[in-house]
Amino acid sequence: MQYSENMKNANVCLLVIAVLTLTVAAWASSPKEIVIDRFDLLHDGIGPASGLALDTNGNLYGTTRDGGTRGFGTVFELSPPAVPGGTWTETVLYSFQSGSDGAFPVATLIFDATGNLYGTTLEGGAAAACSSGCGTVFQLAPPTGAGGTWTETILYKFAGGTDGALPSSSLVFDSAGNLYGTTAEGGKYTDGTVFQLTPPASPGDPWTESLLHIFSGNPDGRQPVAGLLFDAQGNLYGTTQLGGKSKAGTVFKLHRTESGTWTERIIYNFAGGSDGSNPTGNLLLDKRENLYGTTSLGGSGTCSFVGTTCGTVFQLTPPSTSGDPWTETVLYSFQGLDGDFPESALVFDKLGNLFGTTVAGGSGSCTLNSVLVGCGSVFQLTPPATAGDPWTENVLYSFLGDPGDGANPLGAVVFGTKGGALFGTTSAGGHHTSSTGTVFELGPVP
Fold first, then answer.
1. Whether the Cβ atoms of residue 342 and residue 348 lie closer than 8 Å to each other
2. What does the pLDDT look like over 408-417, one tens digit per residue?
3. End-to-end distance of the chain based on CA atoms, in angstroms?
4. Eight-class DSSP state of 39
């Protein structure tokens, strides 16, 4: 915009500058959403339910729960454009076949130091104890030469008995290369397990599974669907979405003793009221060893469905004296228009702000059974300047639910390598004729 040379009044100039400053601030607080990939049934899969993994070159990796060549899900890669604003390039790295190789991946992938990908499938593996298989842990190795294909190796097939069944969680490595995860069912009481997979001494030999904990419902919880987290001392933390004293879920800690066995301790039982209930996302740890997470229900908000609550973001502070209880603080209770049902993990930025997604809510127009439930949102929580004051929530984006936009994000967001943009997936939306899901970019984030 050019201004007339006749504008000599200083007050007018100052007013123009003030308006421009406010306009720029408004733009900065409303990051733009761009759909960088839309899924289709036969080629690249549908319904991504997980977050994304990022490599050092800015490539994104994820899974779709369904679709692909046989309809049992895929692993895909998205490569960034050569010039800003260009088209991302999608490559399907693997299509699951539903036999011994697994089916229906719903967890976020992880990398090892050499670029191999690791993940879980909810079903498949050909175990007779489960109608569609009891799930697998798999590895995808990158090609050795240009133009080659990725190679899938099944590290473990769950049998559905005491060893666990239906893994829906992401995995985590320890420093020795062992993998850790959870199964939502199986174990002695069929309430789920925490497992460890130990790599073989000789390449090509089978990995060895051992159970670190078997859940029994009460008091230690049932159905752990989230992944695990290590602290600096080597303790593991996780959640169960059900069970515990109030049947509203738990947060647990696993400590490895000198003898090599693991001891479980429940550090919080959700009461199912204003403190939250039914946690399903991975936990997050800060430098002071406070834990952060989401509950898909509970809190003080009343949401889309009559009589339901909207969920929370919570913090658990460790005790100053060993053996004392942890302290839970609800940082935010969702109210509906700002989001309903947060089911994903959280992520920090460098300033200590928290970012996450909600499956429903927001200002979009998605409906379920003729009830307006919203299409989901991406939110930011900013810590207070003074300790003890409330955190501030800002809705960065409400999904619209129209054919060109995404809807119902189930996975966490991740920061890209450049520019402060967030990347994530939506399990629905994206096409005029089918609601098959998207990968989106949101940024720059204020």
1. no
2. 999 999 999 8
3. 25
4. -
Asked whether the beta carbons of 407 and 375 are under 8 A apart, the reply is yes
- Residue 442: strand pairing partners: 33, 422
Q: What token pair was written down for 150?
A: 């990725």
Residue type, 401: G
The 151-157 sheet, strands edge to edge: 110-111, 117-121, 136-141, 151-157
Q: What is the pLDDT of residue 50?
A: 96
Q: Judge whether 343 and 313 are in contact, CB under 8 Å.
A: no
Beta carbons of 10 and 428 less than 8 angstroms apart:
no
Torsion, Cα of 111, 112, 115, 116 (10° steps) = -80
Structural element, H or E, at residue 256: strand 250-256
Pairwise CA distance, residues 318 & 315, whole Å: 10
Long-range contacts of 159-163 (CB under 8 A, 24+ apart): 159/127, 159/129, 159/134, 160/127, 160/128, 160/129, 160/130, 160/134, 160/186, 161/129, 161/186, 162/186, 162/187, 162/188, 162/211, 162/214, 163/193, 163/195, 163/209, 163/211
DSSP per residue, 310-371: --EEEEEEPPSSTTSPPEEEEEEE--BTTBB---SPPEE-TTS-EEEEESBBSS---EETTE
Cis, bond preceding 219 (omega within 30 deg of 0) = yes
Query: In this structure, what token pair is assigned to residue 63?
Result: 């899974």
Find all residues with CB under 8 Å of 340, minimum gap 6, and list them.
Answer: 303, 304, 310, 311, 334, 358, 359, 360, 361, 373, 374
pLDDT in tens, 17-64: 232 333 333 334 578 999 999 998 667 899 999 999 999 999 999 999
Q: Which two tokens stand for residue 287?
A: 């430098």
